[in-house]
Specification:
About 85% of the residues lie in helices and about 0% in strands. By secondary structure, the chain is mostly helical.
């Protein structure tokens, strides 16, 4: 069992690492070709796809859990009901999301302080990107099915390949002097292509799946009862990414969005790397829960969690201490002067997020979506209360301080989930972590 988790985690980490390298290379090139202000506008346009993540009500996460459980039980009848119902629901939600963005597209340049020089280009880019939303939702669902079936090698390469191709085409298109409309069109084609490719992979690797275009209301209620709590988590994620970017653009300008997005891209890539490694614990936790193998699973968790802590903390401490130097070498010294504090503050947020990602995956696998909703509600309230006053005090760095404050609930979640599932007290968990190899070199052993 341990070897299987390690192999799946290796697939996830390897492909994500490749995506990080490509992103690290393409972002400076894209800024060089289109400029910082237009890069901010491009970031806002791409962010509208994140709107779909809120609309789907956490269904993709619910699908991973229930697909994993029913596949373990060889209950293919219920498995096919879950997939068929979720597919119809995602298509419906995607169409709704597209219509909302298309309806608002004419007003968005004014709301987001986009220069009239880029007004018409932005409107059409928003409209084309809106058409991408249904396909992005279907792709997310298909990835969830692959993860539920523990076909991580396929899901990882699909996600990273789409990201890499999107980045490369954006650079190539802008290098030839084409505008954001063309980039948006290519992104639409890429999303459609990867939906088709994902379906073909599922047909080959999971022949037991039979999609029927029928909506099973009881199956939908079952998924929704679990996923409804995740809606708050989705709203929190939506507040952090799309809404914070929109707030920065509306309160400051699209140029300020670039100062926020670039450090976020680097830090989130590292966080996503750890998330991809930890992602294997979601279906694994669901399987352990379904088969009553909690004691065996606890040993795997403790060993893996100690290793992740040893890796995560030094990386983000380095990002905090050397933020200005990293940004100077990567983008340029003028950019670093404006963005280093943002990167320093956000490093704390992403460190906590990376430390808790394995905890959240295990909690969701055990059906503890309520704690996720509670912690996400706290984060949402903190961002809503503090983003404006902190922006007034700290300028463009203000939103990053609000986001960092919102992450404090993650520390509580670590202790709550480990005690609830594994019956590990906070004191015992701290003792386990401090006595881990390498940490013992720095800190004295606790008796």
């Amino acid at each position: 069992m341990t070897n299987k988790y390690f192999l799946n985690a290796s697939y996830n980490a390897g492909f994500q690492l490749l995506g990080m390298v490509v992103s690290f290379i393409t972002i400076p090139l894209l800024i060089k070709y289109i400029g910082l202000e237009k890069f901010g506008i491009y970031s806002l346009i791409i962010t509208t796809i994140g709107f779909s993540g809120f609309l789907e009500l956490g269904f993709s996460s619910g699908v991973v859990k229930f697909v994993a459980e029913e596949n373990t039980r060889n209950n293919y009848e219920e498995l096919n009901k879950i997939i068929s119902t979720s597919l119809i629901f995602q298509i419906f939600i995607g169409i709704v999301g597209s219509l909302i963005i298309i309806f608002l597209s004419g007003s968005l340049p004014h709301i987001l302080n986009i220069s009239t020089l880029y007004g018409n280009e932005s409107i059409w880019s928003f409209r084309i990107t809106a058409l991408t939303i249904p396909f992005a939702l279907i792709f997310s669902l298909l990835i969830g099915i692959l993860n539920g079936l523990e076909l991580f090698s396929y899901s990882s390469i699909m996600i990273v390949s789409l990201s890499i191709l999107s980045s490369l085409f954006a650079v190539i298109i802008s290098a030839f002097g084409y505008n954001l409309v063309v980039i948006s069109l290519v992104n639409l084609v890429l999303n459609i292509s990867f939906v088709i490719l994902s379906i073909s992979i599922l047909n080959k690797r999971a022949p037991q799946l039979r999609v029927r275009m029928y909506f099973y209301i009881q199956t939908w209620k079952r998924i929704f009862r679990f996923s409804s709590y995740l809606l708050v988590s989705k709203l929190s994620s939506f507040a952090f990414d799309p809404l914070v970017r929109f707030f920065i653009s509306a309160y400051f300008n699209p140029l300020a969005v670039s100062y926020f997005v670039v450090p976020t891209k680097l830090l989130s890539s590292i966080a996503i790397l750890f998330n991809k490694i930890s992602e294997v614990f979601y279906p694994a936790s669901a399987n352990a829960y379904a088969n009553g193998k909690i004691i065996e699973f606890k040993k795997i968790f403790l060993s893996s969690y100690k290793t992740s802590i040893i890796l995560i903390i030094p990386i983000y401490l380095m990002m905090t201490i050397f933020s200005k130097q990293i940004l100077s070498l990567w983008i340029g010294s003028e950019f670093a002067e404006q963005a280093w504090l943002i990167m320093t503050v956000l490093s704390f947020y992403y460190m906590i997020a990376s430390i808790t990602t394995m905890i959240w995956n295990i909690a969701l696998g055990h059906g503890l979506s309520k704690i996720s909703a509670i912690c996400s509600s706290f984060a949402l309230v903190i961002i809503a209360l503090f983003i404006l006053p902190l922006s007034i005090i700290f300028g463009i760095s203000g939103p990053s301080f609000a986001i960092a404050l919102s992450s404090l609930n993650g520390i509580y979640a670590i202790f709550y989930v480990t005690r609830k599932i594994f019956n590990i007290t906070p004191k015992s968990l701290i003792k386990e972590l401090i006595n881990a190899p390498l940490i013992k070199i720095i800190l004295p052993k606790i008796n």
